[in-house]
Amino acid sequence: MDDIYNLPITQRVATTTQDIEKANNADEHLRNTTVKSLTWSGVTVSVRDRSTKQPKKIVDNVEGIVRSGELCALMGPSGCGKTTLLNVLAQRPTHAPSVSANVLVNGVRLSTTLFRTITCFVEQEDAFIGSLNIKETLNFSSRLATSSIPAHERLKRIDALISDFGLSEQAGTIVGTPIRKGISGGQKRRLGVASQLITSPKILFLDEPTSGLDSAASWEVVKYLSVIAHRHHLIIICSIHQPSTATFNLFDRLMLLSGGQMYYFGTVIDSLLYFESMGLSIPTHVNPAEFLIDALNVDFARDKALANRRIHELQSGWTMSQQADEMSHLRLATEQQQSGGMEISLDEHPNLLSIIITLLHRSFIKSYRDVVVYGIRVVMYTGLAIMMGTVWVRLSPDQVSIQPFINAIFFGSAFMSFMAVAYVPAFIEDTQQYIKEHRNGLYGPAALIISNFLIGLPYLFFISIIFSVISYWLINFQPTAQAFFIWVMWLFLDLICAESLVVFMTCLFPSFVVSLALVAFANGLWMCVGGFMVPPTVLNPFYTYVFHYWDYQKYVFQGMMVNEFGHRVYSCGKDCLCMYQSDLADRCQIAGQAVLDQFGYNDHIAMNVGIMISIIAGYRLASWLVLRLRGGV
């Protein structure tokens, strides 16, 4: 690649053409034979100006056309509206109060569902499961997109894309996690494009695909975009900020924006001639892309008035130009010629069960490769079990041990659920991946919530067993097999509830700091009103009726208390001064039920388990509802 980069521009273009001619037919499925054009007109996006409180247009009456086999660049100074325009063209949320646009495919306005099936969007900061390697990433993207491809054909497509994007040597390398280094930034950008192409889109949108890359890596990424656009007759539109000269010359079409208005739309070659006709001759040895963007940027001009007059002249010049008139006529003619519609042959989309199985498979790989998911929590819970077992070591069945037993029950159940905050970063990664895949029409919130719930069950049960085996017998809780497995059950339900709370909070606020703070606060609240800090018999009515009855820690604490004290007898000591009065006082003993009476607890295990299951279902249903209401997020 470095040798190619050092060639003159004309030879680089020739090299790109040779790449197209030499391409094999392994990726023939990418060929677009149905979508001939994407046209847009009257694109206007308005927001409310914070200072004047008046409507402000960030995109103002923009129009254009890109035909199959063309790579189009949206360029302009920062804040010119290119990303907003890209989102409108891709039918993605702009969060603007007023959006109007007429976006047509082959002269026809498509429904959002159909539009998403033929398009894909590559984010500026693409989301990946960092513990998957390149080949696995493409494989799961393909499986989520279609179920009608035989396994051997799917692998052929994946291998062809990996080869086309120059990733063959890194096919088995993971994308990268905070702990394990993976592929480079340039390779990740190419993977982002490849992971969308594997779904066989007809139109591809990219937001700043070269952001953060050096000139060589940027040229490499755009070169691949140019190759696949020409080879497969795709329509590719990307916003880009100040590309190098070599990268700039790879684009077929260019739209220049400033202040939300159009200043040019046409071929890259004609752009230089057009601006020369407007009195802007590009000096020798100057990057034309940089020159054009600087010419349209008034933010850093010394003479703002002069710069504004000049920019107004350029905009008026474009509006009145022959090029603008020809572009409008071409757009209208194309829309009229192709307005008869189109027939799109789509691969069969997998059903909900297939998607859940695919997500489970992907989550399983992530769960054992990425220690952040469950590995760190296993270590944390094991350490907590050892600490508890050695602090509350071998408590005797005497009345002096009753309060330590109660403290151990509270500490074990409360901190086990509190430490579920460690799951926040792992689920945030899942949420970001879901947002990308949902926006590209692959699956909905139900598949995410169900698969996430199922993948966690065996790991949480394993944690419950490990913690209980270590701590239960060291502390000397009621030493029967039945009591031990009831303890495991309550701990298991506790962890499922805690993880469901994390899922809900992260769906509500997909920000690491915010969701972490909210989960920690919620667990702190549950500790306060669960029945240990203040017994339910004396807890004030507000917290009793607003929080106490749906506090899952309350039912875990109550269940563990009943498990320990419901059928156990404690000695009052040599002096027979019993701390709790019971029917066994004359024998110098305390019936454990006397302790439960102080808290107002009874043995309603079936009802409490049912309530716990309802709370878990409630958190999961609320998480689904949040994602459902947020739509494209």
TrEMBL record:
Keywords: ATP-binding, Membrane, Nucleotide-binding, Transmembrane, Transmembrane helix, Transport
Transmembrane stretches, start-end: 371-393, 405-428, 449-475, 481-505, 512-534, 605-627
Residue ranges occupied by any ABC transporter domain in the UniProt entry: 38-284
Location(s), subcellular: Membrane
One GO molecular-function entry: ABC-type transporter activity
Any one of the GO CC terms: membrane
Family designation: Belongs to the ABC transporter superfamily. ABCG family. Eye pigment precursor importer (TC 3.A.1.204) subfamily.
PANTHER family hit by this protein: ABC TRANSPORTER G FAMILY MEMBER 11 (PTHR48042)
Name of this chain's protein: ABC transporter domain-containing protein
Species, as recorded: Hypocrea virens (strain Gv29-8 / FGSC 10586)
